[in-house]
Amino acid sequence: MILVVNGPNLNLLGEREPEVYGRTTLAEIEALVRDACKAWGLSVKAFQSNHEGALLDFLQEHRKSARGVVLNPGALTHTSYALHDCVKSISAPVIEVHLSNLHAREEFRSRSVIAAACRGQITGLGMRGYLLAAEWLCAEVGKVPREGGTL
Description:
By secondary structure, the protein is an alpha/beta fold. It has 5 helices and 5 strands; from the N terminus they run βααβαβαββα.
């Protein structure tokens, strides 16, 4: 199972600042990731919360069953040492994803306190960043894609 975890305000994708975050909704991103993982024989469990503790609880609950995690912490990227520590407790690889390029925005957004706990980071590629993270995770856990699957 691949987890797709999204933090604060990402439930508003498609309507909140579309010039920055695009017009794709969170539900559409989750469907894209599900389709990509299905080709590899892996299921997806998606979760979004505006509350830091709920994100921690979800990650801790699934830390042993997850084969990989696609994580967009939203604004918690820059402030949540608790989320950093939680990510470190997960043995599966975690890929931090951001729709916008953090390094081309306000200075406070250029630093991620989560990144050091993650296997990698994808930033600035829009919704395709989620797809790239999911495909990398699927390949990393060693499943062979089914016919017609994406690579």
